Amino acid sequence: TISTITMSSFAQFARNSRKIVGIGRNYADHIKELNNVRPTEPFFFVKPMSSLLFKNQGPVLLPRGVKVHYEVELAIIMGKELKDVRESETDRIYDAIAGYAVGIDMTARNMQEQNKKKGLPWAAAKGFDTFQPISDFIPKEKIPDPHNAELWLTVNDQLKQQDNTNLMLFRIPRLLEHISGIMKLEPNDIILTGTPKGVGPVVHGDVMKAGIRVDGKEIAEGLMEVKVEDRQGGYEFKL
Amino acid sequence: TISTITMSSFAQFARNSRKIVGIGRNYADHIKELNNVRPTEPFFFVKPMSSLLFKNQGPVLLPRGVKVHYEVELAIIMGKELKDVRESETDRIYDAIAGYAVGIDMTARNMQEQNKKKGLPWAAAKGFDTFQPISDFIPKEKIPDPHNAELWLTVNDQLKQQDNTNLMLFRIPRLLEHISGIMKLEPNDIILTGTPKGVGPVVHGDVMKAGIRVDGKEIAEGLMEVKVEDRQGGYEFKL
Ligand SMILES: [Mg+2]
Ligand SMILES: [Mg+2]
Ligand SMILES: [Mg+2]
Fold it and tell me: How many other C-beta atoms lie within 10 A of the C-beta of residue A205?
């Protein structure tokens, strides 16, 4: 079962994962910085499993013609199936969560902006290979209150994002009510809970580091470092 | 390996599948019927694995407040990894395809229309549980030319969709160049190649049947029949 997950087995674990769900616009200041409209209910996109990038699996690759942004997020790792759960059923919800991870929801921002204008899916802009770097598995006990933890991200050791998860507009029970009322959540599913303010571009040669702190203390499993490189070949985005 | 897939093992096979990619707007008359713009290059959305519905797994469930449309499509089942393939590499492409299936890309049309207007993802509108009924696995040999097969769908035995796959705007090699240049395709991945004209709503109590004919002959593995019922509980869409 999920409770036996260790750091070393997480890549194997996530290879059995079937779904990556990304929540959009869940921090007010991030909504403002992209001039987006605040949602009246949660919404999500789906990232393909092929976008996952584990520790030491290599760099994030920037597709040709694409402006790529980082978005550091708290990831929920499901441990049990959850279907049609209500926000108020917090015991059932937290019992179904196996633990957490830090994820960087890499986003092809210029493609996404064009797709938004045209009313097209976000799938490609969110789904390139290597677009979902993820930390080791963080056992649930290490983050006793997932709405009181500090996410951070640096690029070339310059601080870009640093905010507390208490700024989430829709909290985890509300997110899981929304998602599980549409699609059943299954063990090993990964849910990205949205990014705080400070998103921005990366270019070839950059190094991203990210992590999560509880009570000012770094959670070792959440620490990640990943290089950024230009991708050779493949799809080229043209406006 | 994939070549050993039999009808009875397909549900197991697809449970190992990691990605469902749906191509949008790939038949001219379907683009017209929804007043959509013809794309200058292929585009896709990603459906969650949890939306898959195999033969005899039960009905398609209609979420509350949602107008659900059927879209019959030729599904490609991948047998080998494919990454950054060029349209011209047809041998490599067809060698990487394990076979086909008939799929019904169920779509929450009113949600999708609202999401298009707001520039939001299509993931929820395409991703409800049971929204991806799929036939048995069709070995590659049974459809020697995937661009010369007739897709059909009936609702309550009334013919709603019937068109030849030779009407695809972007053919399979072009689709696979596009997708594999963004996300590597992996064995067991499922690609929906778009729907011909004739899409429309289903309501509680309806029965959908679908299939595919080659040279006027029904392919047994492609035959499917699935009921439609209202879903109890879960997400309710409100305009
Ligand atoms: Mg994000
Ligand atoms: Mg989408
Ligand atoms: Mg479709």
Answer: 11
User: Whose structure tokens read 């921002």?
Assistant: A109
**What's the CATH code of the domain at B99?**
3.90.850.10
> Separation of B205 CA from ligand 1 center, angstroms?
39
Q: Say which of A63, A116, A123 has its CB closest to residue B44.
A: A123
Residue A19 lies in a domain: yes
Q: Find the DSSP H helices in A104-143.
A: 109-118, 123-127
The tens digit of pLDDT for each residue in A27-71 reads: 999 999 999 999 999 999 999 999 999 988 999 999 999 999 999
CB contact under 8 A, B44 and A121: yes
pLDDT in tens, A183-205: 999 999 999 999 999 999 999 99
Whether A239 maps to a domain, the answer reads no
Which of A226, A203, A218, A100 shows the shortest CA–CA distance to A162? A218
Q: Quick check: ipTM above 0.90? A: yes
Instruction: Supply the range of the domain harboring residue B114.
Output: 2-230
| Contact call for B43 and A120, based on CB within 8 A | yes
Among the bound ligands, the one closest to the CA of A70? 1
Residue B116 in domain: yes
CA of A141 to the centre of ligand 2 (A): 33
Q: Given CA atoms B37, B183, B130, A176 in this order, what sign does their dihedral have?
A: negative
> Within a domain: residue A102?
yes
Number of domains in chain B: 1
Strand segments (E) across chain A = 20-23, 44-47, 52-53, 60-62, 68-70, 72-78, 97-104, 107-108, 132-133, 138-139, 150-155, 158-164, 190-192, 200-201, 207-214, 217-218, 224-230
Q: In chain B, whose CA is at the least distance from the CA of A49? A: B18
